[in-house]
Amino acid sequence: MERGITEHSTAKPDAAPELKIKLQIYCGKEIAMGPGKADLLEAIAREGSISAAARALGMSYRRAWLLVDTMNRCWSEPLVETGPGSPGRAGAHVTGLGASVIAAFRKMQDRALGLRDAGEWEGLREMLRGSPKQHQKD
Amino acid sequence: MERGITEHSTAKPDAAPELKIKLQIYCGKEIAMGPGKADLLEAIAREGSISAAARALGMSYRRAWLLVDTMNRCWSEPLVETGPGSPGRAGAHVTGLGASVIAAFRKMQDRALGLRDAGEWEGLREMLRGSPKQHQKD
């Protein structure tokens, strides 16, 4: 009885199996663009500063700054420019190149998601369990 | 002069920018199939045991065993079966389902690589530097 209750209460509802597809663009050993950097660029475009973008994404300012620094060193021109902005407020904006890079990257991500419509994935998902079989305790 | 020599000797040759595409199949929070697990399955099929496959991939036996255990718990039937094999030698083989899963996964990976032929990637790679700009030391 207790065992039955325990099993019931800890069993997770079956989730649909998922195919994750991650695109990363490398420049040498550094990642010039990936899912996290694309999200950050969009947040900077929206928020108008690196610090506000970091806050919106729950990321430290230091980490956001490092990601921007890497992007700016990997592409032919900076993707983000910081400026004095209004007095007492350091703003940042996404450059024209930055906007082009985001658009092309998102388009590639969309194309990649098309793999989920392919026959291989249909066949594989049918053979997956809803959740992993648990180890038997004895 | 010394600076020139230093720059020359530490400069890495420009590598072609690379688009990496990683496919991962999730079952709940566990990864049922991904690049590392696919490589391991192929090595087991080739080597005939988990320990020989681990050795061939430079992976610890423990890690290989854990990856096999996860795969076997995520799919409707095991992808790898271990058996007594010949006396004194514990063998392992990839099941029919395991072979189907590898084939479908590799096919999806091949399709994903087709993204490299898309116009977006052509455009992006032209805007990437051969290697990241180094920080200026001062």
Give an account of the 3D structure:
The structure is a homodimer of 138-residue chains. With 138 residues, chain A is an alpha+beta fold. The first copy, chain A, has a domain at 26-83 and 91-106: Arc Repressor Mutant, subunit A. Chain A contains 6 helices and 4 strands. Chain A has helices spanning 2-10, 35-47, 50-57, 61-74, 96-113, 119-126; strands at residues 18-27, 30-33, 80-83, 91-94. Chain A has a two-stranded antiparallel ribbon. In chain A, helix 2 packs across helix 3 and helix 3 (50-57) crosses helix 4 (61-74). The longest helix of chain A has 18 residues, at 96-113. Chain A is elongated, with a radius of gyration of 21 Å. The two termini of chain A are 17 Å apart. Mean pLDDT of chain A is 87; it is low at 1-11. Strand 1 of chain A pairs antiparallel with strand 1 of chain B, so a sheet runs across the interface.
Task: Detail the topology: elements first, then pairings.
The structure is a homodimer of 138-residue chains.
Chain A: H1 2-10, E1 18-27, E2 30-33, H2 35-47, H3 50-57, H4 61-74, E3 80-83, E4 91-94, H5 96-113, H6 119-126
Antiparallel strand pairs in A: 1-2, 3-4
Helix pairs in contact in A: 2-3, 3-4
